[in-house]
Amino acid sequence: MKNLVILGAGTAGTMMANHLVSKLTKKEWTITIVDQYKTHYYQPGFLFLPFDIYTEKQVKKEGKKFIPKGVNYIQKKIDRILPEENKINLEDDILDYDVLIIATGSKTAPDEVEGMLGDNWYKSIFDFYTYEGALALRNKLREWEGGKLVIHITEMPIKCPVAPLEFAFLADSYFKKKGIRDKVEITYVTPLSGAFTKEKCSKSLGYLLKEKNINLEIDFAIERVDNDNNKIIDYADKAIDFDLLVTVPTNMGDEVIERSGLGDDLNFVPTHHNTLQSLAHENIFVIGDATNVPASKAGSVAHFQAETLTDNILLYVEGKPLKEEFDGHANCFIETGDNKALLIDFNYEQEPVEGTFPFAGIGPLRLLKESVFNHWGKLAFRWIYWNMLLKGIPIPFVSRNMSIKGKNID
Amino acid sequence: MKKVIAQTEIDVNEEGYLTDFSQWTKEIGTEIANEHNIEMTDSHWQVVDWIQNKVNEGVALSIRGIKKSGVIDIKQFYALFPGGPLKVSTKIAGVPKPKSCI
């Protein structure tokens, strides 16, 4: 018998288990998936939790439900990967593998910035990239009476790069609905050179911040949080005051990657951009947020990667050359507040442009334009996630590689 | 679009970033720096060199990367390239500025 081991039962790992269980023959292969946590979170829901749009129940389920029969599910901590011996040390066990899939994701590391994890953490400083953070922020927002709200990105790359912007838009709607928008000053702070960094997006969407009266601070690389004076301060000594700071801390790969010596500066695993094979070890493959590929860290990306990676695992075990197929395809709804949303569809090469999706000239979804229909799409996506995406069921009319049909490309 | 700089015609995008690195020369870098009121010194060129190597290796540029580069610390980086050091230094180096997905 041969062993295929998947580390991590999040979005990417769960999808791989579902894809491979029917494709690798049971006589030859044992598939094992390892994850220490019992709960599977619908992470896109963390954006809605603080605004009381989703409840706790809507964003979490028991992970076991989504692991198919025929896959061995181990709930233990992973100590380290020993790539030279093809072994994995678990907290009290050792696993051998012939093929390894790393799907250990990325997580927030607020301790990377001086003072962030200080006395005001979850009092006036919050993240919304964790369940705990999103929930604590919801409770804070329910009673907050206004002041300076600062939404801040520490450094790139981050999971779902548009989420902080969506947070700003939804905050504008939330306070309007509450009747206290005039008491809240919203400022969006980014280390990049703009809220929108790509030409077409910046042209099509530049109006959004002005329309919603959101201030913008660019090129802000945070050095520290001043907890005594409620300020964030950057390396150029620029200071920004806040009453409520919603920050996206540094995102890093799991510590197990660092312990195993498999990662870069941020514990992301160097991975071939198109095959998803690790650059250092031919029997190790990497998927989702754990890779260092320059695609967005998002569920849709993991979904498209999973289709290519499934084919490549099968090619690899048959000793055939891998397909250099994955193109960085991402497909993301972006909430713009007031029950509207945008849709973007792009890849490594092609920046988001206007057009229709998935059918050229018809839609029904509009690319890079606000619409109510796109907002329904975003809300419907939660059902698609739990019922189709995790189970590895293809989404109708949406192919793994980006299509240029329906896109307005110069 | 085209732009003439240091007596050479080059291709740039709307923000003035080179779209074809093969057209880059030190003279072009020096002139772009001048447009930003920066007088290039050895320290500036060390940073530009480091940036070009990283881009060549396919590594995403970040402030953290600068911190770990061993070439310069972040305070110095801000002092050398005032007003958004990554944005300015990448333009001088003839490589794309760091971007997000939109």
Helical segment count of chain A = 8
* Relevant CATH superfamily of the largest domain in chain A: FAD/NAD(P)-binding domain
Low-confidence stretches of chain B: none
Strand content of chain A: 25-35%
Which percent range describes the beta-strand content of chain B? 5-15%
Largest sheet of chain A: 5 strands, parallel
Whole-number count of domains of chain A: 3
Alpha-beta classification of chain B: mainly alpha
What is the average per-residue confidence, as pLDDT of chain A, rounded to a whole number?
95
Task: For the structure shown, list the relevant keywords.
heterodimer, A: 410 residues, alpha/beta, FAD/NAD(P)-binding domain, 3 domains, five-stranded parallel β-sheet, 8 helices, B: 102 residues, mainly alpha, two-stranded antiparallel ribbon, 2 strands, 46% helix
Topology readout:
The complex is a heterodimer of chains A (410) and B (102).
Chain A: E1 2-7, H1 11-21, E2 29-34, E3 39-41, E4 60-62, E5 71-74, E6 78-82, E7 87-90, E8 93-96, E9 99-102, E10 106-108, E11 125-126, H2 131-143, E12 147-153, H3 163-178, E13 184-189, H4 199-205, H5 207-211, E14 214-217, E15 222-226, E16 231-234, E17 239-241, E18 244-248, E19 251-253, H6 255-259, E20 284-286, H7 299-317, E21 330-337, E22 340-346, E23 355-359, E24 363-367, H8 372-389
Parallel strand pairs in A: 1-2, 1-9, 2-5, 9-20, 11-18, 12-13, 12-18, 13-14
Antiparallel strand pairs in A: 3-4, 6-7, 7-8, 10-19, 15-16, 16-17, 21-22, 23-24
Helix pairs in contact in A: 1-7
Chain B: E1 2-5, E2 8-11, H1 26-35, H2 42-56, H3 63-68, H4 74-80, H5 85-93
Antiparallel strand pairs in B: 1-2
Helix pairs in contact in B: 1-5, 2-5
Report on the structure:
- The complex is a heterodimer of chains A (410) and B (102).
- Chain A is of the alpha/beta class and 410 residues long.
- Helices cover 23% and strands 27% of the residues of chain A.
- Chain A is built from 8 helices and 24 strands.
- In chain A, strands 5-2-1-9-20 form a 5-stranded parallel sheet, with helices on one face.
- The relative contact order of chain A is 0.14.
- Chain B has one domain.
- Chain B has 5 helices and 2 strands.
- Chain B has helices spanning 26-35, 42-56, 63-68, 74-80, 85-93, and strands spanning 2-5, 8-11.
- Chain B has a two-stranded antiparallel sheet.
- The model of chain B has no long low-confidence stretch (mean pLDDT 90).
- Classes of the chains: A alpha/beta (410), B mainly alpha (102).
- The A-B interface holds A 155-157, 161-162, 165, 191-193, 196-199, 201, 205, 218-219, 221, 223, 235-236, 250, 264-266, 273, 294, 296, 330, 332, 334, 344, 346, 352 and B 13-14, 58-60, 62-65, 68, 74-75, 77-78, 82-87, 97-102.
- Chain B: It is found in: Cytoplasm.
- Chain B: GO terms for molecular function: sulfur carrier activity.
- Chain B: The active site is at residue 101.
- Chain B: Keywords: Cytoplasm.
